Structures are given as C-alpha cells and as structure tokens.
Amino acid sequence: MGANGTRPVTLQAIADRLGLHVSTVSRILHAKPGQGGRVASRGTIERVRRLADELGYRPNPHATSLRTSRSNLIGVLVPRLSDLVLATIYEGIEEAAAEHGLSTFVANTRDNPDTRRARTDMVLARRVDGMIFGDAHVDAVFLDGLAAGGVPFVLVNRRAGEHPAVTCDDYLGGRLVAEHFLDLGHTRVAVIAGEPHASTGIDRTAGFADRFREAGIPIPEHRIVHSTFDARGGHTAADHLFNGPDLPSAVFAVNDFAAIGALGSIRDHGLRVAADVAVAGFNDTPLAVELPVPLTSVRSPMREMGHRGIDLLVRLLKGEQVTSERLVPELVVRASSARP
Amino acid sequence: MGANGTRPVTLQAIADRLGLHVSTVSRILHAKPGQGGRVASRGTIERVRRLADELGYRPNPHATSLRTSRSNLIGVLVPRLSDLVLATIYEGIEEAAAEHGLSTFVANTRDNPDTRRARTDMVLARRVDGMIFGDAHVDAVFLDGLAAGGVPFVLVNRRAGEHPAVTCDDYLGGRLVAEHFLDLGHTRVAVIAGEPHASTGIDRTAGFADRFREAGIPIPEHRIVHSTFDARGGHTAADHLFNGPDLPSAVFAVNDFAAIGALGSIRDHGLRVAADVAVAGFNDTPLAVELPVPLTSVRSPMREMGHRGIDLLVRLLKGEQVTSERLVPELVVRASSARP
DNA sequence: ACGTTTGGCCCAAACGTTTGGGCAGCGGTC
DNA sequence: GACCGCTGCCCAAACGTTTGGGCCAAACGT
Predict the structure, then answer these.
(1) In the CATH scheme, what is the code of domain B11-59?
(2) Residue B277: which of B268, B286, B285 has the closest Cα?
(3) pTM for the full model?
(4) How does pLDDT run across A10-35, given as a tens digit for each residue?
(5) Which of A154, B11, B127, B326 could form a disulfide with B169, with the two C-beta atoms 3.0–4.6 Å apart?
(6) Are strands A296-299 and A330-332 parallel, antiparallel or unpaired?
(7) What's the CATH number for A71-168+302-327?
C-alpha cells in the first residue's frame, strides 16, 4: 500500500520499461535458479532481474492466489495464545512456516466449540491452503467433519482420532513422573488432570495411573481431579484435594501452570512443598526453575512440535501420505520433589 | 480448497442459476442492509440471498483484494508471543479485529532489528492494510522510515517518537510502586529495569526514580540494572544486585516475569521475600497471585490495549486524525511487599 | 400523447498474475 | 533447398470481484 508512496510496481511495469511481454517477465522472475530449460536469453534474464529489484518488485499475492488458487497461507487454531505452551508451539510453527515461504494466520478458540467453528470458518474463508489445530478435542467429530470436507490439516500438541498429529509422548511423560514418585516411596498420590477433552491431560494421567497400578498401587478416583490448564484451575483442583480427609503426599499436575496454582493452594493450606507434599508439573516452562521451590517437570519439545507440525502439513499438501509423530519427553527433577 | 470437495461457489455460479448478471448478484450481496437506494427488486434480492447461503457462498478474498486493493488484513509484530504480556495484548487485538471484519497476521521479531525488518517486509508483501507494532524501540528510526513510506500503523504497549500509540501509563505505574515502597519506609531500593530500548521499562523506571528523588532519596545508578523481560533475565539482574555489598531492601522489577526471576535469585541468596526484601512486579499476570509468596504488582489493562490499538488503527485507516492513548494502571499490593 | 424520471438490470473493463500455445528466425542435417 | 529442432519471445485467456456507465421498460407529469 503506501498512501503517499508510489503505486506498487507490477510485472507490467517492468515489461513495459524493457519492451518485453509481461509473460516473459513472469517466467524469468519465477524460474527457480535450479530449474531445467532456460526461459530467456542470458542478457534478458539479467536485465529483468536487475530492474526488478532496482524497482523493488513484490509480486501481488492476491493476484497470484487468484490465478493459482493457492494462497501459501496456513491457518492455525489454538485454545489461547496466552497459554505459554501454545504460544511456544506457535513460535515453532511460525519459524518453520517462514522457512517454507508460508505465512500463518492464528486465532484463539478458547477451547470453545462455537468460537472454534466461527474462527475456522473465518480462516477457511481466507482460503488458506491448510490448517493446524492445537486445540483438538478427543471426540473428533468436528475434525472428522472438516476432513470429510477435504480440508487438509494436522494437529499439534493434542491428538484426536486418526488425524495426523504431532504430539509429545504424553503417556510416557506420565509414566516418568510415576516412576519418580515411586522411587521416592510415595503411595498416596494425586493427579491434577487438566481438561477431560484434551488428549494431553488424558494421556499423561493414564501413563501415570498405569504405572502406579502396575506397582500395585491403584489411584482412587477421588484423587484424580480435572482442571483448566492455568494457575487458577490448578489452585481450585488442589483445594479439592487438600480440603478432603485423604491428603496426598505427592501431586502430579499435568501442566506447569496448574502446578503453580497447586503451589498456591498448598501454601494456603499451611503445607510446605516437598517437605509435606511433592509436586511435579509438565512442560518444563522457563518459570519452573525460578520458583522459590524449583518445580520438577517433564520437558516437552514444544517449539519442535511446531516445526514438525508444519513439516507434516507441507508433506500433506504435496499429497504425500503422512503419519503421526510422537516426540519424546524428559523428566527434570528439582526441589519440589526432593526426597523428604 | 477442498481436495475432494466441490469447487467453491462463485458469484458467476449464482448468477447463472438465477439468470442474472454477475454484477447484479455482487451488488445485492454487497449492499449493507442499512444502505440507501435499493439495488434490485425485492424478489430478486430475496432469491439471490437465499441461493447464496443455500450454496454457502464465500466471497473469494483474493479476488476482492485484487480488485479493491484492500485486503482487510492487519499485520501485527511482537517481540515474542511466548511473552504472556504480548500474547494477552494480541488476544485483545484479535478480538477487536474480528469485530471489524479484519484478520490479523502476527509475527515474532524477538526484538531483533534484522528479524523485525524481515518480518515487516514479509507482512507488507502480503499487502496488509495496516500494521500494529508491539515491539517498538524508543529510537524510532525504523518506524520513522516506515511512516515516511506511507505505511499506516499504530503502536501498542511501547511508545516511540510521535507515532500513535496505546500504552499503559507506565510512568504513573512506576510512581505507584515508589509511593508504596516509601509508605513501607524503604530507603535502599533497586530497580530491575528491563531492556533499555523499551519505553515500558524506561518509563516505569523513571516514574519510580522520580518519586524517590522527590522524597529526597535519589536512587544510585548501580541499583538500577537492565535485564531482559523474562524470568532468567530477572534472575541475572537480581544476582547482580545481591552479589554487591549494598543490599537493597526492596526491589521493583518492571515486569512480573523478571520479578519471578528475582524471587529465584533471592531464594538462592538465602534471603526471604518480604521479610528480608520486598518485591514488586508489573502487569499483574495471573501467576502473581499464585506464587508461594503472592507478588505485589501493577495491573495494566493488557487486553484492553489490544482493543484500543485496533480501534486506533481502524480510525487511522479511515483517514481520521488520531492521537495516542494512555491507559491507567492500578497497584495491587500482596504479601511480597508486606510490612516487615 | 409526449417528454422525463425512475427502477431494474446488463456490459465490460479492470485488478496482477500464470500458463498452454503459438510463431518467427536461426543453425544444422540430409 | 526442404526439413527439423532450437531459442527467445509474444498472445490471450483465465482466476473472481467491483464499479462506472448504459439501456430498456414502466411509471409519471402535464
């Protein structure tokens, strides 16, 4: 644009100045260096290239998209960008997209079906080439519908149905924490399990619970409590646990922020972290290490997930067959789960 | 789109089915209800409208943009979305943009001039109608150039030069904290001042320092230390303060995350928050209240800033004269600055 | 009965690209 | 010297909209 500036320079403008046809200029500026057959004479190519960047030629993406019906745009839907986990994943997506010459379009759905529907429509109306969902619900009915409609997409962070997804191996992550708690001799453990529709929470909880069951210590239902993925949700859930008669000696929160909320609750209940109750989180956000009692957490490759998500989508758009990927997590032990 | 799906329905398709001309259909579907002169007969309008949404007509934005050279796209640049403050502001931007029928395009610049330049180019190449910068540097040379180029933009969060900006009244925020520390009787205070190129850090620090100077207690240079805006940066800066011989009794970090990092440092130095050293942050992020020692902080209307930013930009795009806005902050006192 | 207005619609150009077909001229082969 | 295959370029259509202008018929005024 440029209200005061010169009109943007077009292929036509370049062609006119050089006495060439617009199509010739188009081919020249288009041909990737490595391409096969030469498209014009050495000299012409040179002149066109020079003039193009002397004039600062920028192809008009709308014209291109109109003509080719490819927008090089990717729509990304996340529950909320103010969730550090998703924001970090999105940073990975953006980086990788830029490497592929793609631009991304991100929208918050708040994990709310109506908003998701509305935002998806908006994004689709923009004629994106494909989508990435970071907010999948395990019941994949929405996504099934979309897939049936022929929209190419991949999932990140959460899996759903058989749709291609890049996730952390959440089940394994849960097992790692369980293993650690078992090592410490904990038998009365609790889980702050996140939202029931998110595969992350489900799988992390399942891995954790399975490992304890294998150790002969099944976790009673009332010690597994759902929550939102933020500090406040973790606080509320932990209140639930600590108001009951059956105090846990260790708590696994499936998300660092929920864990921080749990720390708040523990404080409010006059208990001491580690000494009275061990706490572990998930994702190993940068905050974990800075907390007054540093937080044990499972490191998940968030940025990497974004990268892989784009890679997967790009392959999908090329028509390749793609399969889900599961990245491996790593337990980082800190003072919040020190040996009592 | 829709690999398997039907071709998207166009104006032409609707026109053909109804024996009308495409231009007629265009006008009908375009006319906002409240518009003046009728554009077609009642009956025709009805038939077109009905068929359009029966077929699920979606205007092709590329064609529209090509024709009108308006994209209804806004480019947003932020240092990093994984900074909760910016992510929250962006959520506000997105909400407000959606209300105006605009879509937003966000990119991370990492506060790095080269990346900023590159991302700006990319966004401009997409022919956005306007931009919002959340990463302005006080030396506005980059923005001056852009403005000279005729690109319409506004700033949020940080101000720079005379460019229209929506900010928090950071200076006032700094004063509020100073006032509070003075009330508590602190005389040896320090500031973790953020990055020297960000107006937020500068103004908050200035407000704080000015108030202390007015109270006859100028703050020595060595107790004002710069830092990045994240936990690690705050930690490092605080280490600086607490490794010296001249221990402060109160620390103002211009950002909650830096404050959290300071908490980590205080812990490492065997000091107790509040009892030994008071701490205050800025932004009142949701984490502040959950910390083991809840954090005193200045609440800034982040989401609101996003809203106002879009409003300002929209007015600017309409050609109106716009002026900067400064939203008022509020001090929230918590245990981290309890009376010793 | 005859000009003039109005309602309702169509025409065509334009926005900036991409791309399948051409069509000259030129160097070589038989 | 007829033929072939290049090289280097041009032509024109198409993508889906928007929009200034026009045209026809009906309604209106006197």
Answers:
(1) 1.10.260
(2) B268
(3) 0.93
(4) 999 999 999 999 999 999 998 765 55
(5) B326
(6) antiparallel
(7) 3.40.50.2300
